[in-house]
Amino acid sequence: MATFLYRLGRGSYRLRWLVLAVWVLIVGGVVGAAGALQQETNPEFVLPGTESQEAFDLLEDRFPEMDADGGSAQLVFEAAEGETLADEDNRAIIEDLAAVMRDSPQIAGVTSPFDVDEAGNPIGMLAPEANIGVLQVDYAEPAMELDESTVDYLEDAVADTEDAGLRVEVGGDVLQEVPHTGTTELIGIGVALVVLVITFGALLAAGLPIVTAVLGVMLTTAGILAATSFMNVSESTGTLASMIGLAVGIDYALFILSRYRNELAADGRVEDRRARAEAMGRAVGTAGSAVFFAGLTVVIALLGLSVVNIPFLTEMAVAAAVTVVIAVLIAVTLLPAFAGFTGKRIFTRRQRRRIAEGSHGSKPNGGKRWAGFVTRHPILVALVGILGLGTLAYPALDLELGLPDAGSMGEESTQRQAYDLISEGFGEGFNGRLIIVGDLEEGVDPMAAAQNVMTELDGIDGIAVVGQAFPNAAGDTVMVTVVPETAPAAEATNDLVHGIRDVLGDSADADWAVTGATAVNIDISDNLNDALLPYMLIVVGLAALILLLVFRSILVPIMATLGFMLSVFAALGALVAVFQWGWGAELFNVDQPGPIMSMMPILMIGLVFGLAMDYQIFLVTRVREAYVHGADPKTAIVEGYGHSSRVVVAAALIMISVFAAFIFSGEALIASMGFALAAAVIFDAFVVRMAIIPAIMALIGRGSWWIPKWVDRLLPNVDVEGEKLQEHLAKDAPVDDERELVGAAK
């Protein structure tokens, strides 16, 4: 592996124009394909194999007039103090708005608070005190497929109503937007550039990882756009790909470029073009091996998300995995070519002068000093680190999972205001009504079947209202609406849904199912919880095998995995303390503490595991390299961390800054994700990888590298530490330029 990558890196440096031309052709082809093939993204959300999805599909088939997948808006009115909505002026305003909305584009139906059925029974939502009411607006197309003019029409109509003097807030899914991360990405790039300038002390060197990472993200984005022509792609597919692509793209380029500069500085011949090519070959041969296996662990962690069986999550994971593969390829080919164009300017004039004088890097750096402290006091460092993270992890024992709704949005948002008004006027459960659908056996009377079910529902605690039964035109399906007593995200509502399903499961006259937005959210949470253990076993197991292959050690993979779990639980504990318990809520912009998003644990495991293994491989490969080349265990730790810790610290700071920028987003979901990922990187990079792991390795000594001889014989030697590369370089002179890439390709 190291010898192959050495030839590839050296050849890419020397034949940089050829490498650049190939990448230009690739980028041009993919961008051209994106322009020619791009279609509308598919915002459809499906959850195959779940009861809520099967019931939803049944509604769509048997009640086509309902437009089950259509968008909706709840226009919630509140009368001024001392007035009611039934007052003549207020009622006229509401009826005028209802008439305006019935003329809206893409409209399916409008129900006023004052509407009644043929028998004179009210069918609209008007609070008993008549101070709060809801105008229900249903659209013929899903919310994310509505034309911009349709949404503008709604907003203009609401603005006119407010101008008339009546308060109105808008709930529902029509005003929801796909999160845009462009501004956050720019902040991340800016922070990364500052950190890289500090790390390298040279603006030109700092710019190369940024350029290559952005290029990789652009390439993946173009590929996703081209893929919309022949497969369903959701709106959010590229979000995770952009975040991960930018992160690992900078990390991988940073690691190889740092090794290249170290090799070149140690050689001392910065002015010699051939020496620069040789240094790049060595950098890619050694650091590139670490990048390859680090990338492989991230890809495994991402592709493992497919076990959850949520299509949009699988799409996001596959797109992000492709981005990681592209980042690795760019790091070992295009980055060396760009370094070839910069030549000796990869160092500043001052740095070149110090190298020529032999004073560059002659003083012990911070990494060596820190590693020296850890190896001298390993028990103290390990205990402080483990006990500290264990304490932070304690709140995770109280972890409550759910999916956010409008009640978790910022208090200033109109969706949150509408949610609160509905809760005040009708009860929290009206924000998350359940739909019970019965697929009737042949010959069964729909109303009789519905009456039987309604009788059974009367015996279930937690139900506020059981609505009327509605059969379809064919008489083979019936629908009943149930309103819980509690909020959609409440644990009691989750218990209620499962209780209803248990009661209805024994019915002989129909196959009953529970659906609605609340039931869908509960099924998503259940899927995620059920998939968590298999996912961890798959990802951690495969990654442990990779680490066993890389480090040829039994204990190092075990330490790496246990340390990762400790950092994840500590991050979950911090997340619970802030976003569920409300500690420091104002500091972290938490308006409404509540359950943690169901996706958070599995996403944290996938994303943080990949980054943690990156840091583990980057740091410990240099330790193993020093150990293999003759250093004793403690000296190897000091040497390895002296070479790599600066790079890992820089990479971690970049990631922390990128993730932390999301904390102050107005969206609770995005804010909690940013907080959790930033905390996890802090704990894993600085406490686990920089403190606990080297301390335990110092305590174990040579045992860290123990492996049974029979296992060692079975494992292929991937030569991450470059031992065989050193033998190759000692025996063979560098081959000609053209033979470099040809040999590497073979």
List descriptors:
24 helices, four-stranded antiparallel beta sheet, Multidrug efflux transporter AcrB transmembrane fold, five-stranded antiparallel beta sheet, Alpha-Beta Plaits, 746 residues, 8% strand, alpha+beta, elongated, 11 strands, disordered C terminus, 62% helix
Describe the fold and architecture.
The protein has 746 residues and is of the alpha+beta class. The protein has four domains: 1-37 and 183-356 and 719-746, Multidrug efflux transporter AcrB transmembrane domain (Multidrug efflux transporter AcrB transmembrane fold, Up-down Bundle); 72-172, 2-Layer Sandwich (Alpha-Beta Plaits), CATH 3.30.70.1430; 364-406 and 529-707, Multidrug efflux transporter AcrB transmembrane domain (Multidrug efflux transporter AcrB transmembrane fold, Up-down Bundle), CATH 1.20.1640.10; 408-522, Histidine kinase CheA-like, P2 response regulator-binding domain (Alpha-Beta Plaits, 2-Layer Sandwich). The chain has 24 helices and eleven strands. The strands form three sheets. Strands 1, 2, 3, 4 and 5 form a five-stranded antiparallel sheet that branches. A hairpin with a 5-residue loop joins strand 8 and strand 9. Helix 13 crosses helix 18. It is elongated, with a radius of gyration of 30 Å. The two termini are 13 Å apart.
What topology emerges from the helices and strands here?
Elements: H1 2-14, H2 16-37, H3 51-62, E1 72-78, H4 88-102, E2 107-111, E3 125-126, E4 132-139, H5 148-163, E5 167-172, H6 182-200, H7 203-227, H8 237-267, H9 273-303, H10 311-342, H11 349-357, H12 366-376, H13 378-393, E6 401-402, H14 414-426, E7 434-440, H15 446-457, E8 463-471, E9 477-484, H16 491-504, E10 510-515, H17 517-551, H18 555-580, E11 596-597, H19 600-628, H20 633-660, H21 668-700, H22 709-714, H23 723-731, H24 737-745
Parallel strand pairs: 6-11
Antiparallel strand pairs: 1-4, 1-5, 2-4, 3-4, 7-9, 7-10, 8-9
Helix pairs in contact: 1-2, 1-9, 1-10, 1-24, 2-7, 2-10, 4-5, 6-7, 6-8, 6-20, 7-8, 7-10, 8-9, 8-10, 8-20, 9-10, 9-17, 9-19, 12-20, 12-21, 13-18, 13-21, 17-18, 17-19, 18-19, 18-21, 19-20, 19-21, 20-21
